[in-house]
Amino acid sequence: FILVREAGGVPFGIGIEILCLLTWMATSIHYKQYDWSLLNNDLFYLLLAWLIISVLEVLNPAGASVMGWLQEIRSSAVYPVLFVSLAFLFFNTNKDLNKFLILIIALSLIATLNGLRQQFVGLTPAEQNFLDEGGAKTHLIWGKLRVFSFFSNASQFGTSQAHIGLLALILAFGPFRWWKKVCLFLISGVIFYGMLISGTRGALFALIVGGLVAILLTKNYKFLILGTFVVLSFVAVLKYTSIGNGHYEIYRLRTALDPEDASLNVRFINQQIYKEHLKKIPFGGGLGVTGFWGMKYNTDKFLSTIPPDSYWVKVWVMNGIVGLIIWFSIMMYILGKCAGIIWKIKDQELKFKLIALCSGVAGIFIASYGNEIINDMPTSMIVSVSLAFIYLGPRLDRQLLNSD
Description:
Blueprint: H1 2-6, H2 14-29, H3 42-56, H4 66-90, H5 94-120, H6 125-139, E1 140-141, E2 144-145, H7 154-172, H8 178-197, H9 203-218, H10 221-240, H11 248-254, H12 262-278, H13 291-297, H14 311-343, H15 348-367, H16 379-391, H17 393-403
Antiparallel strand pairs: 1-2
């Protein structure tokens, strides 16, 4: 997104599909070099099934624009299949897992440092132009900048920082060398500060849910009791005290737990409007009928006039209650299967790495109820590759045990 913002005029997003398709073309030519049996798993088949359902949505009788469908299907269904399948084929060793973790933590740290530059040094002309052209409506709250760093918006930046900050913190408790634990702990603190300066309230739920999932997956009862107490105490301090209200970032985060918050109630009102309209169309209004592509290609449709403000709601509006149930069931099954895989991992270092990845995915899934997160870059790619590595867990575990 920094390329889009700073350079502009070039459809950089299409470059993602081009790179993926070129990789697939190379794979088809050298197909004997790869272990195609790695694709024989329910993660790949479920995502492929959702892609097929999304393709069939072009026939939705509600009559949404084909261009809107084409644009929306890329992020909602095509990317997950491409990212997961390519990860299984090319990015499937313990060394690759380590590279992946180092890469996403390092890039998130750089993103926070860039966010600090925005907050304390100032914006580039392109960033200021982003605010002037409408971004200020959501990125200047009470005169304070919601930092967005390299990302498309502050919500994506803040939730991503919560995701990767939590991942680094979980790894800091793992069975690694002391200096790695210290580095991970310090890095997680810096990245969490990036979450705070984004002013993204939904990031709190990625943090809480991801933390609880990590505690559960450790199967350490002492840690489970202590960790749950810490998480609940953290929530209680935010909910029932005013500690830290002198800092805008903490005050903003605290409003996520306020049931009287005006923004939250507007979303509930919009969902009631959707509910009445969608009673008549159980298969939804079609892909691209709401959100950004709805405003661009489906201005003649009623559903395009109401912002979804949530990826869960967006799936519901586009695919109807039938599609929402299918998508939600797929996601819950995948998360449950990931937990089952992790419980059986014997190598403790690998187990902590997979716990960190699974907790991050769970947090992002829940946070996507508040904003469009799981379908946006770079989180979409990180979630997809994380799921692939978890499914590869038993294979990686056997390799580690055999090498000992």
